[in-house]
Design a protein that fits this description.
The complex is a heterodimer of chains A (about 425) and B (about 280). In chain A, the strands form 5 sheets. A 6-stranded mixed sheet of chain A has the order 5-6-7-3-8-9, with helices on both faces. Chain A starts with a strand and ends in a 29-residue tail after the last strand. Chain A has 3 domains: about 20-55, no CATH class; about 65-260, 3-Layer(aba) Sandwich (Rossmann fold), CATH 3.40.50.300; about 270-400, Coagulation Factor XIII, Chain A, domain 1 (Distorted Sandwich). Chain A is globular, with a radius of gyration of 24 Å. Chain A is α/β, with parallel strands linked by helices and about 425 residues long. Chain A is built from 11 helices and 20 strands. By secondary structure, chain B is mainly alpha-helical. Chain B has one domain. Chain B contains 11 helices and 1 strand. Chain B has helices at about 25-30, 30-45, 55-75, 85-105, 115-120, 125-150, 165-190, 190-205, 220-225, 230-240, 250-280; one strand spanning about 10-15. In chain B, helix 2 (about 30-45) crosses helix 6 (about 125-150) and helix 4 packs antiparallel against helix 6. The longest helix of chain B has about 30 residues, at about 250-280. Classes of the chains: A alpha/beta (about 425), B mainly alpha (about 280).
């Protein structure tokens, strides 16, 4: 057997610190400070120090001495929670970013489904975008000519192939984009959870395509949070934790290990001491939980039932004006809502000052709110206009199951992040 | 297995690069079709949803020429070696327009294609290169007006007309050289976006577009030609209109500066390239 991918003591370091200022509320004071700090910033940047005037630059090892290899024709699963380094690994493999240390040897062309629809131009037609996207993915013109009909068939948009893609629905857009990427026929295919989007029928098609690729003796690296997909599609899996490879085993064993190690998404996020920046004190996040109406912690929410979001935290000192909130967003990064525990005027007065101690802020998202798909829950603790204690934009992610939701008798994907049960009246008016 | 071994897959080594980066122009050659497709995309969408469409390629230089004609030709009466002012300035506005358009689009080419840069591997040089070359279409359209003007003013092209493509290449080289620097800097410091309008404006004053390079006194000519665009404009006028600004030492200086920009820009771009995806 030949080795298709050899990863040898691979490490990747990212600079953080700049991220600290990224999510600040745009306060006028900040702007003034920014202007005043300009000369300092220029001097520092010339000296090659950190670009932002906010303390020492710190680094994070997104990948820390990772080694493994994959034989040709194998399907390797990669599991790990958010931030474990899975995406960074794929980015290094597809040569988007350079490693800081270590080497990777890749035999053949790497195609990744990270890049679905990259370079698509809304003004161009489906046909034109197939050629453009194909070229961006590294296909030759003749190769695209040869596969053109196949791509169009696979995408199921043949009727609209000469319509600008800005007129496409997001489902059509995605199907076309995936069709191009799927026909790249690389020797090594890298797949990252794109399967979380699109309707069920299409997802099945994508997984089928991935299976075909593996059947043809090509190598696949498959990243997913979906353990059943990992078990079904891969023979072997690696588990990443904080940039390190902590397990490599046959898939069943690796998945068991991952689930048992408590890092899997279980509808609960617990903050370890080393995950809380010193700057958060005296605020200390403890746990974020997702509960169904029976009070059970769940990682998949039924859209027809209310769901409780609760955040437990500790105050080591009293804080005045604290507000604790949640951000809900889709996996594509669109915000669905932002809400704080003292949004209500009554709460705002009652909890204007909080004593030291342990608290839980809890809210209920009503039934018939979510649409199908995957959502990300972020948290934030701040005193408005004074300081932000803690923030994690992606503390927990979860899936929504829509069985029984309005309109599910039509097997189609509905647009938009919410799926309310609206009161419809139909009248005959003539 | 047999199916994929029909062509022997190439082995790629991914490792941290250090020191002065190799130019690796071979990679650019492999991706030449992408350059073509990016140019094609830019041209295709450039005048989408505009009322006047490709006419903009003509309107911009012609309007500038009319304004220049009024200010410098009629009011200030700058010397033009006996050539009608409209054609005198229009000949210079052609390469100048190509240069500024190239600078504006190419300097932003990386930041406006963030998606591509952070998700896919391809030689990043493709983006500024395609942006610069994409301007050639507008240049060609605007050139038609020049031909019309030459017929109208009965200006016969000189025997040196064959050198025109060379000066066109020189324009491209200059624009690409400067754009490589600016686009790479722009990835980290978006200040470039604010600098660009000033830069092109000041640069216009330092370039003999509205006036003749002959108005600069002899002892300053060599300093003046440190501006590579001076060489370009003088070359265009010489090849098309037969002005007395043909190849000489000054132009050699301009050409040398152009090449310096290009080569240093290539190396700078290549050495910054490895961090693009992380800092953009």
């Amino acid at each position: 057997m030949t080795t298709a991918v050899r990863v040898d003591h691979l490490s990747k370091r990212y600079k953080i610190g700049a991220a600290q200022t990224k999510f600040r509320y745009g306060m006028f004071r900040d702007v003034l400070v920014d202007v005043a700090m300009t000369p300092v910033r220029i001097v520092r940047s010339i000296q090659g120090k950190n670009m932002r005037g906010t303390g020492a630059t710190s680094f994070i090892w997104a990948l820390d001495d990772v080694s493994f290899d994959v034989e040709e024709g194998r399907v390797l699963g990669i599991v790990g929670r958010n931030g474990a380094g899975k995406s960074t690994l794929l980015k290094v493999l597809s040569r988007v970013t350079e490693p800081t240390k270590g080497t990777v040897t890749v035999r053949g062309r790497v195609g990744s489904l990270l890049e679905v629809g990259t370079g698509f131009h809304p003004e161009l037609t489906g046909r034109e975008n197939i050629y453009l996207n194909g070229a961006i993915l590294g296909m030759k013109r003749t190769e695209i000519d040869r596969k053109f009909d196949e791509i169009v068939d696979f995408s199921e948009v043949s009727q609209f192939i000469d319509t600008p893609v800005k007129r496409y629905s997001s489902g059509m857009y995605l199907r076309l984009a995936f069709a191009v990427a799927a026909h790249l026929e690389p020797e090594i295919l890298v797949v990252d959870e794109v399967l979380a989007v699109g309707d069920a029928e299409f997802q099945k098609k994508c997984l089928g395509k991935m299976g075909d690729v593996a059947q043809q003796g090509r190598t696949v690296l498959f990243v997913s949070h979906n353990m059943s997909a990992i078990l079904r599609l891969t023979q072997e899996a690696i588990v990443l934790k904080k940039g390190q490879l902590i397990k490599r085993a046959p898939s069943q064993e690796a998945v068991d290990f991952y689930l048992a190690s408590g890092q899997a998404e279980t509808g609960e996020r617990i903050w370890e001491a080393d995950e809380i920046p010193a700057s958060a004190a005296p605020f200390k996040p403890v746990a974020l939980r997702l509960k169904d109406q029976r009070g059970k912690i769940v990682d998949t929410v039924r859209s027809t039932e209310p769901v409780t979001l609760e955040w437990e935290y500790q105050l080591d000192m009293p804080i005045t004006g604290l507000r604790v909130g949640m951000y809900l967003s889709t996996m594509r990064g669109e915000y669905v809502f932002t809400a704080f525990d003292t949004d209500d005027a009554k709460h705002f007065e009652q909890f204007s000052a909080r004593k030291a101690g342990r608290y839980i802020s809890r809210c209920v998202v009503p039934a018939d709110f979510f649409n199908e798909g995957r959502y990300s829950l972020g948290v934030n603790a701040s005193s408005f206009g004074v300081r932000r204690y803690f923030m994690d934009e992606n503390a927990l992610s979860f899936n929504v199951d829509i069985s029984g939701a309005p309109g599910t008798h039509w097997p189609e994907m509905r647009q938009g992040p919410v799926r309310p049960r609206l009161e419809w009246k139909i009248e005959k008016v003539d | 297995m047999t199916e994929i071994t029909k062509h022997q897959p190439e082995t790629i080594y991914i490792k941290p690069s250090s020191g002065l980066a190799a130019l690796n122009l071979r990679d650019l050659w492999i991706y030449r079709e992408l350059v073509f497709f990016m140019i094609w995309r830019d041209i295709k969408v450039r005048y989408k949803q505009t009322l006047l469409g490709a006419a903009w390629a003509v309107i911009q230089p012609v309007l500038t020429m009319l304004v220049f004609n009024f200010v410098f030709g009629t009011v200030a009466k700058v010397p033009t070696e006996g050539i009608p002012y409209p054609i005198f300035s229009y000949t210079a506005l052609l390469p100048w327009g190509l240069f500024t358009a190239a600078l504006n689009t190419a300097s932003r080419s990386l930041t406006s294609n963030t998606n591509m840069v952070t998700k896919i591997y391809f030689p990043r040089l493709v983006l500024p290169l395609a942006s610069v070359l994409g301007g050639l279409v507008d240049f060609a359209i605007a050139f038609v007006i020049l031909i019309v003007m030459m017929i109208y003013y009965k200006v016969t092209p000189t025997a040196a007309i064959w050198t025109l493509p060379l000066f066109l290449i020189l324009t491209i080289v200059t624009a690409l050289g400067v754009a490589l620097w600016l686009s790479a800097i722009n990835v980290q410091y978006r200040d470039v976006n604010y600098v660009l309008p000033f830069l092109t404006q000041f640069w216009l004053f330092l370039t003999p577009v509205a006036y003749s390079a002959k108005v600069i006194s002899a002892k300053w000519q060599i300093v003046y030609s440190l501006n590579p665009m001076a060489g370009v404009v003088n070359g265009f006028r010489w090849a098309l209109l037969g002005t007395n600004t043909g190849p000489n030492l000054n132009m050699a200086v301009s050409i040398a500066i152009s090449l310096t920009f290009l080569i240093s820009g290539l190396f700078y771009f290549r050495s910054m390239e490895r961090t693009f995806a992380d800092t953009i």
